Amino acid sequence: MPTQPGIRRRVLATSLLTLALLQGCVYAPRTVQVYDDGCRIETRRMELELYQVGYFAGCSNEGCLTLLVAAGMVTAASAVVSGSIVIAGNIVYWFEKQGRCQ
Hints:
Elements: H1 4-22, E1 25-36, E2 41-52, H2 62-100
Antiparallel strand pairs: 1-2
């Protein structure tokens, strides 16, 4: 069984790798037009879209760790906020579709 420091190192390495992959990314809601064959109408639907807003290079030591943690928090926060907007928007679009589909 791995020792406690060994587990901590693996968790830290996995966290840093995940944050590095997400660096400079934000999620944003996007509305798309969709044709509904059953109702023969065009409706709207919201989706989450991932945007890379930039990346950083040339950092070292503690500065890199700080930047990675901050980028990871921004990505997570944008996913939560934008995901909530998408869910609420799709509920509204569903009601709109029900009113137009006879």
